[in-house]
């Protein structure tokens, strides 16, 4: 509630006669910029406000009306001619940016958009990004391309992250040439590509979604220690098959089932430690893991 109230106050400070709630004077993820109505910041604000409304209802409390009112009044900028999101109000197309910003709308924010718009955002900001910027940028771009099914572009950008790993101890630095050492943001972007990009793992309200793809040069991948609603499981997959193995359960954990979202059949469930559920993979195949 306190976070939602904060965003209500920020929105109120920028509300004009037209009723649009502008969030002003923001330094967005792109640290080179200062502007109004950052699309990333405004999207985060709307997510926080909408979540507060839903959470209040879940726990049986009346949501504050100002939360929904503010959310609906906060704009998310979109250039209809270029079919992309400008980083902030009066952003000049092609202007240099420091790091991933707008591309974070697709992941991790999961703001709904078409594949075409996501691709346009990626195409707009890849050449505009400072080549000496933080490593996490290229992992986030790789995830965007994986979401769109462009494996070769994703691989090129994922591999670009390694320029920020310094030998002999494989320490991450902020930029390819140095800067802050043991740079966890860069390492985190790399790991998110491995865990959320290539397996395509997304945490939805009532399920986990998987769109598995292999890292370039690999023949199989294994993701261990995934915990979901009292279950601990691991995933193994190659280019044709995915196998979910239940490793442990807490008391009263739900029964996990794997379903092919494209055909909504071939439901395979695991009920006790050691059980396996196997599904076929193919181009564009999307699987969901949910509770029975």
From TrEMBL:
InterPro entries: 6-hairpin_glycosidase_sf, 6hp_glycosidase-like_sf. One of its GO terms (molecular function) is hydrolase activity, hydrolyzing O-glycosyl compounds. It comes from the Eukaryota. One of its GO terms (biological process) is carbohydrate metabolic process. Belongs to the glycosyl hydrolase 65 family. PANTHER family: GLYCOSYL HYDROLASE-RELATED (PTHR11051), PROTEIN-GLUCOSYLGALACTOSYLHYDROXYLYSINE GLUCOSIDASE (PTHR11051:SF8). This is Glycoside hydrolase family 65 central catalytic domain-containing protein. The lineage of its organism: Eukaryota, Haptista, Haptophyta, Prymnesiophyceae, Prymnesiales.
